[in-house]
Amino acid sequence: MPELPEVHALVMDLAERLAGRLVERFDVLSFAALKTFDPPVSALAHHLVGPIMRHGKFLDLTIGELHLIVHLARAGWIRWRATAPKTSARAGTGPLAARLVLDDGSGLDITEAGTKKSLALYIVADPLQVPGIARLGPDPLDDDFTEQTFAGILGKAGRSQIKGVLRNQSIIAGIGNAYSDEILHAARMSPFKPASMSAEEVSRLFAAMQTTLREAIARANGLAASELKREKRSGLQVHGRTGEACPVCGDTIHQVIYSDSTLQYCPSCQTGGKPLADRVLSRLLK
Prior knowledge:
The structure is a single chain. By secondary structure, the protein is α+β, with helices and mostly antiparallel strands. It has two domains: about 5-135, N-terminal domain of MutM-like DNA repair proteins (Alpha-Beta Barrel); about 145-270, Helicase, Ruva Protein, domain 3 (Orthogonal Bundle). Helices cover about 30% and strands about 20% of the residues. It is built from eight helices and ten strands. The longest helix has 22 residues, at about 200-220. The chain is elongated and about 60 Å long.
C-alpha cells in the first residue's frame, strides 16, 4: 500500500508531467471504484490540470475547478502512459480501473491488482467532501506537528497499542502498516507498547518518525512512479522481511499475523529478546 512517502513522490512526479496540461477525458472502467456521481466524470473533460497535492495517503489532482481524489488502497497504482493507448479499454477486463487521457493521447492509467477491490475515486468541488479526508488527523511532516503536539496525541490515546495509534488515519495522517513497523524499529519499541509513555520515549519515537519518513521521501525524490515500489521495498529494515537478519543487531526478524495484515519486528531491538506470539496472547511489552 502506498503511504505518505510514496504518495508525496507521486505528487512530485505527476506535477511535472501533468501541470498545465489539457484533459481530454476521464474514463472509469471499474464502476465500483467511483464513489461519487455529482459532478459527473464528464465534468473533467476539456479543463487544465492545476496543482497536485497530498492529503495523508490521498492523491488530489486539481482539474479545472474540480478535484479528482485517488486513494490507491492496498493494491492500487498509477502508471504514466507517454503515448495514446493502442486499444480501447473495456470495463471488467484486467486491472485497469480508470484512465486519464490528455489532449495528445498521453496520460495516466489507474490500476488495481488482485480480487479484493478497495481503490477509491472521487470527483468533488472540495477535498473535504471526501469522508476519509475530512476525518484525517494532522500530517506528521507539517511544521506545526511538534514533539509537544505528538506527546498530546499519545497521552490522549492512553493504553492503546502504539502500532495501532501510528496507523490510525484519524489520529495521524499518512502512516500505514509498513512505515509504522519501520518507525517502531528505529525507536526500539514494541508494537504492543501502550501509547502513553515517558517524555524520553516520546522524544525517541518522535525523532524516529521524523527521520524514517523524511529519509524515505529523500530516497524517493525524483523517481518515476514505476520505480517507487522497488525503492520502498529496498529501503525497509524490518517490514516484509520475516526470517531475515535485522540490519541493526543480526537477530531474526519475526512477524505477528492478523486477519488481514501482518507486522514485523526485531525481538532483540524492540521487545527485550521476547517473541510476540500474537496480539491476544502476548502481554504488552514496555
